[in-house]
UniProtKB/TrEMBL annotation, chain A:
Residue ranges the record marks as coiled coil: none
Organism of provenance: Auxenochlorella protothecoides
Keywords: Electron transport, FAD, Flavoprotein, Mitochondrion, Transport
UniProt-recorded name of the protein: Electron transfer flavoprotein subunit alpha
Superkingdom: Eukaryota
TrEMBL record, chain B:
Assembly and binders: Heterodimer of an alpha and a beta subunit.
Matches recorded under SMART domains: ETF
Classification via InterPro entries: ET-Flavoprotein_bsu_CS (IPR000049), ETF_a/b_N (IPR014730), ETF_b (IPR012255), ETF_beta_N (IPR033948), Rossmann-like_a/b/a_fold (IPR014729)
Organism: Auxenochlorella protothecoides (Green microalga)
Subcellular location: Mitochondrion matrix
PANTHER family for this protein: ELECTRON TRANSFER FLAVOPROTEIN BETA-SUBUNIT, ELECTRON TRANSFER FLAVOPROTEIN SUBUNIT BETA
Chain ranges of the Electron transfer flavoprotein alpha/beta-subunit N-terminal domain: 23-213
Function: The electron transfer flavoprotein serves as a specific electron acceptor for several dehydrogenases, including five acyl-CoA dehydrogenases, glutaryl-CoA and sarcosine dehydrogenase. It transfers the electrons to the main mitochondrial respiratory chain via ETF-ubiquinone oxidoreductase (ETF dehydrogenase).
Classification via CDD domains: ETF_beta
Protein name: Electron transfer flavoprotein subunit beta
Lineage: Eukaryota, Viridiplantae, Chlorophyta, core chlorophytes, Trebouxiophyceae
Family the entry assigns: Belongs to the ETF beta-subunit/FixA family.
GO biological process: amino acid catabolic process; fatty acid beta-oxidation using acyl-CoA dehydrogenase
Keywords carried by this UniProt record: Electron transport, Mitochondrion, Transport
Gene Ontology cellular-component annotations: mitochondrial matrix
Amino acid sequence: MRFGRCPSGTMMGSVPRLWRSISQRMGLSTLVLAEQKGGRLDPSTAQAVSAARALGGPVTLLFSGRGLGGAPSAGAALEGVTAVLTADDEALDHQLAEPAGALIVAVQQRRSFTHILAPSSTHGRNLLPRAAAKLDVQAVADVVEVQGPCTFVRPIYAGNALATVETPAEGLQMLTVRTTSFPPAPARAGNPAAIEPVSAEELQAAKDASSTSAWVSEEVGTSERPDLGQARVVVSGGRALRSAENFALLEALADALGGAVGASRAAVDAGYVPNDLQVGQTGKVVAPDLYLAFGISGAIQHVAGIKDAKTIVAVNTDADAPIFEVADYGLVGDLFEVIPQLQAELAAAKAQ
Amino acid sequence: MRVLVAVKRVIDYNARVRVKPDKSGVDLKNVKMGMNPFCEIAVEEAVKLKEGGSASEVVAVTIGPKAAGDTLRTALAMGADRGVHVLEDGEVQPLAVAKLLAALTRREEATLCMLGKQAIDDDSNQTGQGLAGLLGWPQATFASKVVVDREAGRASVTREVDGGLETLSLKLPAVITADLRLNEPRYATLPNIMKAKKKKVDTVTAQELGVDITPRLKLVKVEEPAKRQAGVMLSSVKELVDRLRNEAKVI
């Protein structure tokens, strides 16, 4: 049986029953590198589980870090998860690539999964390719569609083209998945998967690899707003905002809509907002229901990060700005006049 | 300390990408090519380390066809001391690139490898991590600040991660991949471009380095992404709010 002959064009989430039975007979089994922050399950894990389920085999989650809290139990309750492994140790604190990568290699050598998946976050992209090289696997990055156990679709050239690639049918396959392309796996009622720590030998591999790098410090944005990658509404600004202070206008609008604030590279480079708010090829890829772009011209690198938004609104003084080519609703005007009007209209609409 | 910096020749970041009608790939004929923007940042940082006295020599490396030699010359014009060109006409996937770079790192006895965080053509974001894994060296990806302490034999690197910044201390030798905000790459001046022509470039093949570069992933097809439906231009904020509520139903 060659999986390379998998029929193409099948949407994720509707994997034919035939495959699922073939997958199970072939002994497919998937490990998902789960993400948690401060002991809480990160939403990207449920989205990666959804991609893993599309492969067909049973799904095991691996949590590693220090102080995993309630994250493993939350992961064990996700639909499709059949087992949860935990590695809770000081050596894995802050998830440095060297010990965390060594852990993945040791877990794979002991348990022989057919697929290893990670969310395509900065974390997943840091770890997975390192472990893949050690396991002599060419990983597939940023998968947006699973067409079969060895056929995947991924964007290239800043999302200007979609490549369908086939991995070798034999041996381990490793992927990072673009989480905005997969719905989160729901939590199921009852029967959570069993949670079990990794073996002492597997943990030792991580400890042995932990001497070459050390975590020093972090600066974390302390926003009360929803996470940019997960928000239903994103309000974004570009260079036309003219100052950091003016971003308060966008923040107020974002709060009125229950959304997150984003920015173009120009706004980040100008120092108006920190770089973790950058949306685009080199920043975050978002897929909210509503994306509002204020004073953003719409360079291809920016559009690469917003193409999958359900509705795009663009407000710009330049009627020829390329952002209007991708916007569902465009408004030529000065954002400093439009934003207050928009807030007034929203308030009026709400009051009705 | 010798720094190895890897550069890739890619489509110019402003060029329009066209998918070939037969879906076999992207049409690169008559398209402007240049150094991958993240590689430029890596070269700049390597040259800065030399200017600051942390590095003694900067070796620029590229893997690709003959035309990639131009990209290597650009790195030399920016300040790299010499170049190594791994001459390969076919596709070289990130794992194979990492293996070639690992072989060169050992051959050149480099202490630090600088790469860009990703190439803007295949958008893989894997080579640096793979290289670090193969060498068994520590890695710092998405770097926005690098400080090398030669005496301590360590590099302090600030990384751009989801949600903020993180600072790590790596024991050298190490691999670092550059993010956008690490620096502003310099332009190669005409006199430096002329001088670069005299700098030494070694040409090798994957075979000579003992690396199997057979592609592991098979490209089935390349397609244009679905076009977004043409939108409408509105004339007032009132109309916008009405459309968002009653037509798009997103607020």
